[in-house]
Model the fold of this input.
Amino acid sequence: MSLPPPALFLDRDGTLIEDLHYQADPQKVRLLPGVREGLQQFHQQGWLFFLFSNQSGIRRGLCTLEAVEACNQKMLQTIGLGENLFARTCLALGTPEQPCEYRKPSPKFILECLGDYSLLPDRCWMIGDKETDVQSGCSAHIHTLLLTPIPCNTQAEACCANFFEVTALLLKNA
Ligand SMILES: [Mg+2]
Done:
């Protein structure tokens, strides 16, 4: 029997695109360095992608679900690997004051995907730019990687300064 595919659980803002805080304008969506090239390489090697984004701005009235989805569409167009790049997308709409069950650091979305797609935790990575991203991955017992310009105190197994480094690190070990 062949192994299930490896998978990336990806934060959006500050990980795949520039974090403009409650991003609502698709025209302002900018991929971060190395994301396009990196995802193309992972894709070629058969990795699955899951988008896992806290979007409390919707509940706070700072942006709309339609605007967030329009930004996701723009991001997908810019990546250029098709509109169905993500096997599943989780937009957690809770706020810190009123968290929803999926809001990071909750591992609920990751755990559901591990089950539904029969993934092996040891072949999955949570990648994000905040410690709450790392915590969601740790709680789901998958690998964790923090994107950070400078080394910092983190629970993450690995730190990278940009997505070029992510790709080099993970595909070297694949
Ligand atoms: Mg982020």
User: Anything to note?
Assistant: Helices lie at 35-44, 65-79, 108-116, 131-139, 163-173. The longest strand covers residues 48-54. The mean pLDDT is 95. The pocket of magnesium ion is lined by residues 11, 13-15, 19, 128-130 (CB under 6 Å).
